[in-house]
Every structure is written in C-alpha cells, then in structure tokens.
Amino acid sequence: MTGREIVQPCDLIVDGCMVLLPDLQVVEDHSIAIIGDSIAAIGPRDEIKKAYHPVSVIDGQGKLAMPGFIDAHTHLAQQLLRGGVVDEPPIVWQRILVPFENRLTFDNLYHGARLACVQMAKAGITCFADSGTGDMEPIIRAAIETGMRANIARMSRDYGSFIPDRFKDTPRVVVRKTEELYKAYHGGANDRIHIAFSATSLQTTSPEFLELVAGAARQYGTILHIHLAEHLKEVEQCLTQFGLRPVEYLAAHGALGPNLLGAHAVQLADREIAMLAEHEAKVVHCPASNLGSHGFPKTPTLLALGVIVGMGTDGASAIDLDMFPLMRLLKSAVNARFGLPTFDPFTLPLTDLYRMPTINSAAALQLQDIAGSLEAGMKADIVLLRWMEPQFYPAQRVFPTLVMVANARDVNDVIIDGQVIVKNRQHQLVDEKEVMRRAREQMDSILKRP
Ligand SMILES: [Zn+2]
Fold first, then answer.
1. pLDDT in tens, 38-85
2. Same fold? 8-67+374-427, 69-364
3. How high is the pLDDT of residue 5?
C-alpha cells in the first residue's frame, strides 16, 4: 500500500442515506456511487467519499434508499378513465374498457401516458409493463420522454364478437404488428424500452394464433404477456371450447415456458400451479383488481411450489398507482383467506411480499440481472423516501416499518437509469402542471365524443 487513495470519477453520489440492501437489512450512513446508468458501489459514507469524485450529489440525509418498484402489469391507455370502473357490474373489460380504448386517438393516448408516467415516477415506480392497447407508439414515446423503463406489449387478439375490428386481425397480421414494434423500439433509449409479444386474453386467442405468437416470443427472446386465469368466465370458455383449463391450454400449444408472464393468475387449479412451477412460468398478481372482482389468488400454494409471483397495479382506472398499499392489501387478504382458518399467521411473510413488486417483477420482465435490488453492477433505478417523518421515525425495525407504513407520497427523489427523474417531489424532465392540463383537455375531448 502506498497510502495514496485512487479517486475515481463518478457521475452522481447519493450521499449519507439509509440503504435497503438485497438481504433486506437496512444500513445507516451509507452512500451510493453511480457511473453512467449503473450503480458503481454502495458503501459506508466515508469510504465512498474517499473513493469517488462525483459530478453531482444528492443529499441522502434523513432518507432511505430502496430499489424502484416494477409494476409488472398495467394499462396506460386507461389512465384517463380514472374512477370510471368502480362499482360497475361485470364484465367490465368487455362493457367499459374495450369500448373506451376504441375511442382513443393518438393524442389521447400520448397525454394520458405522460400523466401515468409522471404519477408512477412520483410513486417510486421506475419500470412498468404495459399489456397493451391498439396503438403503442404514443405510449412508448411518453415513456422515453419521461425517463421511464418499460416493457411494452401490443393488444393482440384474433377473434371475439365484442372486439372492434381495429383491435383484432388474422394471427399473422397480429404477430407482424408486434414484430414491427420490436424492430423499431426494442433496446431503444439506452435499452430502457423492451417490446414483448402478447395474447391479450385467452377468450380472444385461437389455437393457431397462440402457437404463432408463442413461437415469435421464443424467436425474439421476449416475454409472452397474457391475462391468465383472471375470470371464471375465461376458465369456463376455455373448458367449453377446448376441454382444457387455461394453463393446460397454454401448455398444449407450446406457450408455457420461463418467458410467460401470466397476469392475475387467480382462478387456478392446483395442478395448473404445479405446471406453472415445472415450466418456470411467472405470474403477476394485481391485488386491487383481483380482490375486487376475480377472487382470492392462491398465493401460498404458488409460493410453496416455487412460482415467481410479481405484482402489478392493472392501471389507474380504479385505484392509485401505488405499490405500497397493494402489498398490504394482498397480505391482509391472503391472511384472512388462508391464514386465519388454519391459525397460520405466516401465510405471506413480509420478505416474500416485498420481493413481489421488486425482484420478482424484475424476473417476470427478464430484468433480474439489472433491476429490482440495490447492488453494484445493477442499473441505478433508486427511490429515496423521506424517513424523518413521524410515521417512520424512530422504528425498532426499519424493513417491516417500510413495508407496512410507507406510501407513494413518502417518495422524495427518484433515479432511473442513472438519471435524476424526480427531485424533492418534482419531476425533472417535464412540467407537471402542463402534463395535467393537457391530460384534462384530452379527457374532456374523450367525454364529448359519442
Ligand atoms: Zn390487465
């Protein structure tokens, strides 16, 4: 040792904060050094100060750093439908959602998506998976401009009497449209944008289309995003038409594999859960919509058999885009449904719960090597919460307090891909008031349209 320290340049340091580490321990007075789009080092404040010379610094005093949330199933096209599906009789997607999306123009989608992206970033959601509407270009544009990381699928259906013509086509044309999107955008914006293939619902997917789209997803190495076992109606139709339950139907046509993202996954038979586990398929619960109209997901069985369970909001038409209360909702529901009857208070431990919107959602989007936890080498997708608040400070145990108490409004700063996107609760890339004003104009124009 010469006694001389080598000081390395870095772009950004988050200085002197608490950090939630991958083992779910929380360390105090640490700093995070960021070079380019990635975390270079996390360590005690003094060590990072000696080792790195930053271009800029974010003050981490009184803040807790955690990985950005990943909303693994959402619908940005439904952003301007806020409050529009609450207390409505079923079947909401056929009666309200599809006709609403059928009326949307490019500008409606673009300004709605910008609002969604601003709302998500301010809630600590740094990455989302949109399961798609007819036109995804305005949504991709909004994601790029607002600095978000996103996995984008296009609405993909090849039949259904209640589906407007613009939302369905022959299997080959549907697959070709996603191929075009893939070629234009996959890997764009410093690899923040990924494109996925999808079969939006098994109720509008023929066997021929399922085989074609599953093959395309394998060929391009993308995820296959499907609404899976969401409604009893879907299970009933699958059984009536094909004599198979939804997961069996996927398996029969080569669509069940590690790249499958099955959104919702509520109405599953135990043997379907075993098949999901065997094929390493991923599922994504959306607790607010699941408990509202679909039922209790069999989360303890899914976890016991080793299925990776991510989490999603399912969009803003009925709820806030806030992953914190969704975690607590799922914990309470699972405990009430499965824990209480058998006097098992540990049906869904906080450690398993917290992994859902972080590392599990990352795995569902094939991002497990770059997102979902804070460690050197991962992308710098970091959320800073204001911790010196009466609801948090002091806490005997920080991690349980974080999961059980925090909300979107506690998010103070957000870094995505190494770029500061939210600072002191203000979006740094767009004028929030302007985004809201334009969204209001678009919503009004939709409401006036016949
Ligand atoms: Zn959905």
1. 999 999 999 999 999 999 999 999 999 999 999 999 999 999 999 999
2. no
3. 67
Give the separation between CA 142 and CA 31, rounded to whole angstroms: 31
pLDDT bracket for residue 1 (50, 70, 90): very low
Instruction: Tell me the residue type at 332.
Output: S
Distance 279 CA to ligand 1 centre (A): 23
* Sequence ranges of the domains in the chain: 8-67+374-427, 69-364
Over residues 244-268, mean pLDDT? 98
CA distances from 415 to 125, 357, 434 (A): 10, 17, 22
Q: Tell me the residue type at 381.
A: D
Residue 20: is its pLDDT beyond 60? yes
Q: State in Å: Cα 43 to ligand 1 middle.
A: 40
pLDDT of residue 90: 79
pLDDT tens track for 171-186: 999 999 999 999 999 9
Calpha distance 450→447 (Å, rounded): 8
Cα 311 to ligand 1 centre (Å): 12
Q: What is the pLDDT of residue 414?
A: 98
178 CA to centre of ligand 1 in angstroms = 18
Ion ligand 1 residue ranges (Cβ < 5 Å): 314
Strand partners of residue 284:
263, 310
Q: Which CATH architecture has domain 69-364?
A: Alpha-Beta Barrel (3.20)
Three-state DSSP class for 424? coil
Expressed in angstroms and rounded, the spacing between residue 314 Cα and the centre of ligand 1 is: 5
Contacts of 49 (CB under 8 A, 6+ apart): 15, 31
Look at the alpha carbons of 225, 230, 233, 239 in this order and tell me if their dihedral is positive or negative. positive
Instruction: Decide: helix, strand or coil at residue 76.
Output: helix
Q: How far is the CA of 376 from the centre of ligand 1 (A)?
A: 33
Does 223 score more than 80 pLDDT?
yes
According to the model, what pLDDT value does residue 433 have?
98
Report whether pLDDT(388) > 70.
yes
Q: What is the CATH number of domain 8-67+374-427?
A: 2.30.40.10
Please report, for residues 18, 29, 61, 113, 405, the alpha-carbon distance to residue 388 in angstroms, rounded to integers and kept in the order given.
11, 14, 9, 33, 13
